[in-house]
Amino acid sequence: MKKTKIYEGKILGLSVYDGKIEGRKVRREVIEHRGAAAMLAFDEENKIILVKQHRFPHGYVLEIPAGTLEKREEPIKCAFRELEEETGYSAKKMTPLITYYPSIGYNAEIIHCFLASKLKKTSELKLDDDEILSVVKLDLKKVLSMIKTGKIQDSKTICAVLTYAAKKKLY
User: Fold this and answer.
1) Mean pLDDT across the chain
2) Of 26, 89, 134, 171, which has the maximum CB count within 10 A?
3) Residues 89, 5: one domain?
4) DSSP per residue over 61-112, as a string?
């Protein structure tokens, strides 16, 4: 396929691909993204550590901590870094939970979800200038209820929490 880059920004790019699939001429517009790591983390009281973050144009949303991979950064390294930056907690261990494409039809982004364990509060938040967030801690049952009722709509949070619950046979 021939790739034409249309736009390159700080977080994402847009490319148009022209070529053939099974002998048929196709054109695809694809959002290019390095991918992200997201962490399902439980504190010392077994509460899920979430962030209430402003996500333009949707306003404030409740989600698990996450961040975009730096160039050539391994997802697990991003997970350790982003957890500490967004929550002030460091984890001794990150276990892969689920990896998925949030918008497979037009977006190259892949999200790597991890289960963070053996947490310790080590620092204050280290936010980027444009990040507006606060830490919120909730019981797993409450988070599951919020997913079921549509109060949590973030895909990485839904995927990570439901995968964790299914593996634990809680859901």
Assistant:
1) 95
2) 89
3) no
4) EEE--EEEPPTT--HHHHHHHHHHHHHSEEEEEEEEEEEE-TTTTTB---EE
Q: Is 150 left (phi over 0), alpha (psi -120 to 50) or beta?
A: left
Whether 19 and 84 map to the same domain: the answer is: no
Q: What are the structure tokens assigned to 58, written together?
A: 């949707």
* 80 and 66 housed in the same domain: yes
User: The domain that contains 124 carries what CATH number?
Assistant: 3.90.79.10
Same domain, 16 and 87: no
- Full-model pTM: 0.92
Q: Are 155 and 102 in contact (CB under 8 A)?
A: yes
pLDDT band at 162, cuts 50/70/90? very high
Same domain, 85 and 95: yes
CA distance 110 to 97: 13
Mean pLDDT of the 109-115 span: 98
Supply the range of the domain harboring residue 162.
Answer: 34-100+109-167
Terminal Cα distance for the chain, rounded: 42
